[in-house]
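Hey, quick one: can you model this chain's 3D structure?
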Amino acid sequence: MWERLRRFSALERPARSLFLRATVLLPLVALSLRWRGFRATQATLQRSLLNDNQEREAALVSKSAAMIAHMVNAADRHGLVHPSCLAKSLTLWWLLARQGISSHLRIGIRKKEEKFEAHAWVERDGIALNEPDEHHYHYAAFDTAFSSPPPEER
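Sure thing. Here's the predicted structure for all 154 residues.
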């Protein structure tokens, strides 16, 4: 426990803040998905976003996106709740959007041993941010990214 606290204290302030946000947000998103469903959860998250179209340096955006993805993964590993890939991906997508970083929520399916399985991840510029081991390559992604709710739900 002391080692975890030491590592947390060693993080820079923005990373600590993102870790804490993700730790709180992951179980809330998971509960919302269970009780309200995907579209209602995504619409609620979408409503809380600001329209921030600022131009940012590409290298800084990439570094920020990687740090946010890392903090969401850390919050999942060290949190009390270990939500689904959809809850983690929605959380990451929202945290990126709050920082003005555009990304795409992707959902894919596969058939394994006569059962269908689904998986969700977040992409930026064609790169999966929350998939360090490229697990998503085993899934056929839907052609449409689920980055915003349909127009009738906005």
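One thing worth noting: Residues 45 and 61 are 21 Å apart (CA to CA).
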